[in-house]
Amino acid sequence: MKTIDNFSGNFLFLSNFSPHSFRDETDTLWRTNEHYYQAWKTLKFSERGRIWSASSPGHAKQLGAEVTLRDDWVHAKFYVMENGLNLKFSQNDYIRELLKQTDGYHLLEGNYWHDNIWGDCNCDKCCKTPGSNWLGALLMNLRKEIINGE
Ligand SMILES: [Zn+2]
What we know:
Elements lengths: L1 E3 L17 E2 L5 E2 L2 H7 L5 H8 L4 H8 L8 H18 L2 H9 L3 E3 L2 E2 L8 E2 L12 H15 L2
Parallel strand pairs: 1-4, 5-6
Antiparallel strand pairs: 2-3
Helix pairs in contact: 1-2, 1-3, 2-3, 4-6
Bound molecules: zinc ion (ZN).
Zinc ion binds next to loops.
């Protein structure tokens, strides 16, 4: 199967850093899915607000590394990511169409920052270990739901 293994350039829309904003169930507007994901690492309102207002997804990620982590994060993170992806792709028609057009391609979040949970790191140290690629898996699942839903 053909693979898209780099979520940048033409495929930046697959990245949580892509500038596609969306509103959540409380009508809060999130600049990127990275903001949404990092913010929900914590249940402390003030910490979440700081991440919400971060000027870039990179900054949101930095702030997310410093929060008071919620107790159930080890499980909740998959739900939060899936929810964010659903919101992002349901509210941005253009990239929902682009996601559909990747049908037939395996989506693999190749990276070099040692993330072997959401993706698969290609550095010299990690390259022998296959990553779990949860981001790719959730995207492929969402793609299937979108295609089947039409
Ligand atoms: Zn690595």
